[in-house]
Amino acid sequence: MALATVHLMRHGEVHNPDRVLYGRLPGYHLSELGYEMAERAAAYFTARRENGANIVSVAASPLLRAQETARPTAQALGLEIDVEPRIVEAGNRFEGMSDVKKRLRDPRLWSLLVNPIRPSWGEPYREQVARVMEAVSERRDRAVELGGDGAEAILVAHQLPIWVTRLAAERRPLAHDPRRRECSLASITSLDFDGDELVAVRYAEPCADLLAQAANLPGA
After folding, report:
1. Are 44 and 208 in contact (CB under 8 A)?
2. Residue 109 confidence (pLDDT)
3. Full set of structural domains in the chain with CATH
4. Of 20, 50, 59, 116, which one has the greatest count of Cβ atoms within 10 A?
5. What whole-number distance in Å separates Cα of residue 195 and Cα of residue 187?
6. Mean pLDDT for the stretch of residues 121-129
7. pTM for the full predicted model
């Protein structure tokens, strides 16, 4: 059985002065800090390659912020960016709203909050896990075809789909407090496989020292 790793990287900070929950809306690009985060992630993966990692592919969500985050890493590694729609941001009924916390005082929105376990305001957690893991499995197998034993693939995605996939991988409940997600901007959640079996989950924050400067909206 071949060993392989799939890295799920979250995008960098987005230019969002109105603090909109942008979800799948088009046109939201990285801020200056976000571009710095993307470069930092590229340096992280370049160092991995220099230390022997066999990174053979880079793919990203079709959303602009993910594509922009993936670009420096792909360039540094000499790889093309594949578009992977299965790792797109979660659907959310609050998409396009600003100051969502204040808007939740409106009784007309309370029906969206009745089931936080599903959740009732957006795409079910289990559906997010299913689509992301389908992409992970295919990208893992393709990495092994390209690079053999120990090959690695990078997928640049979004906080919520990455986080619930990690919860599922670690056999934890999918319902959670968004404020407690361990999936910071430009962070890397790595899934290690032995054949089809997930054997380890690892987490790294190449941009830990930049996070204090960032505007970070839960679900963004």
Report:
1. no
2. 64
3. 3-183 (3.40.50.1240)
4. 59
5. 25
6. 94
7. 0.94
- Cβ neighbours around 83 below 10 Å, total: 14
What CA–CA distance (Å, rounded) separates 42 from 4?
A: 20
105 CB burial (10 A radius; 0-12, 13-18, 19+): exposed
Tokens of 27: 């046109």
Q: So what's the pLDDT on residue 40?
A: 98
- Give the C-alpha separation, 204 to 106, whole Å: 38
Cis omega (within 30 of 0) on the bond before 119? yes
For the stretch 160-198, pLDDT in tens is 999 999 999 999 999 999 889 999 999 999 999 999 999
Least confident of 58-67, 81-90, 111-120, 143-152: 111-120
Strands 3-10 and 151-157: parallel
Conformation bin of residue 5: beta by default, left when phi > 0, alpha when psi is -120 to 50: beta
Give CA–CA dist 104/98, Å, rounded: 11
> 38 and 69 in contact (C-beta within 8 Å)?
yes
Largest CA distance in the chain: 56
Kindly tell me the sign of the dihedral angle through the C-alpha atoms of 47, 49, 142, 66. positive
Q: What is the pLDDT of residue 112?
A: 63
The three-state secondary structure class of 154 is: strand
**For the CA atoms of the chain, what is the radius of gyration?**
17
Torsion-angle region of 96 (φ positive above 0: left; ψ -120 to 50: alpha; else: beta): left
Single-letter amino acid code for the residue at 101: K
Residues in the chain, how many? 220
The pLDDT of residue 80 is above 70: yes
